[in-house]
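Entry 12.
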Amino acid sequence: MNGARPGAGRRSHEERSCPRDPGCLLGGNLGRGFPAYVRDFNANFLAMPALPSERLAGACDDRDVVVRVVRAPGHGTYFAVVNTGFGAKAAARIRLPVRGPVRAAVSGAALPAADGVLDLELRPCQLYALHAEE
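Predicted 3D structure (tokens):
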């Protein structure tokens, strides 16, 4: 026996330390060369409520852009817009099932959305958290 035990190792330690996103939010990862992008991702990730989400089918025609919806009763609806591709998207048209104003979840800035449709400029592998009041 070599002393190994189930659940041992670096990965399991990270999962205990940061169960929402193992390895991403630990402080040492900001030294990898692109801290601005990591901080932006972390801010958007943490702006989303820790509730179940579901993929919003048909929200964007671009296959690389995925939209997930999180319904937070009494607190509005959150949307995670993710560019899963390695290329930038100059104008990703996003269709959301909302009629009211849409805001950036991190900054609170109002976004120009007409009947739930907005165009976003997305960097490669970017997460953008949105919020709509009920």
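Annotation: The helical segments are 10-17, 35-47. Residues 7-18 have pLDDT under 50 and may be disordered.
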